[in-house]
Amino acid sequence: MLYEYRCQTCREITEAHRSVAERDDAPECSQCGKHTRKIISVQRVHPDFAPYYDINLETGIQSKQHRKKVMKEKNVVEGYGKGWM
One digit per residue, pLDDT tens: the chain, 85 residues? Predict the structure, then answer.
């Protein structure tokens, strides 16, 4: 996860990727190298889905939910053949 830490000296915010178990292991400030403390910040949503045109469904797909809806409307089910992951 991405956590934010504020410097106790210069007030600069430093971001660091940490596991949940390591979230309290504060990094040094990226500006002055002094001690930082974890702050509670707003969660950022990073979309994991970009719109695309599905040639099999012959439709522009906007989201995962939209894809499911289109598949249901067209009475299409997703199937995986032997050897698919």
Answer: 888 999 999 999 999 998 889 989 999 998 999 999 999 876 666 666 788 898 888 999 988 889 889 999 999 887 666 655 5
d(CA 23, CA 17): 8
Nearest to 63 by CA among 49, 73, 79, 76: 49
Domain coordinates in residue numbering, the chain: 2-39, 47-77
Sign of CA dihedral 11, 15, 16, 22: positive
Instruction: Tell me whether residue 3 is exposed, middle or buried, using C-beta atoms within 10 angstroms of its C-beta: 0 to 12, 13 to 18, 19 or more.
Output: buried
Amino acid at 30: S
- Side by side, the strands of the sheet bearing 2-7 are 13-17, 2-7, 36-39
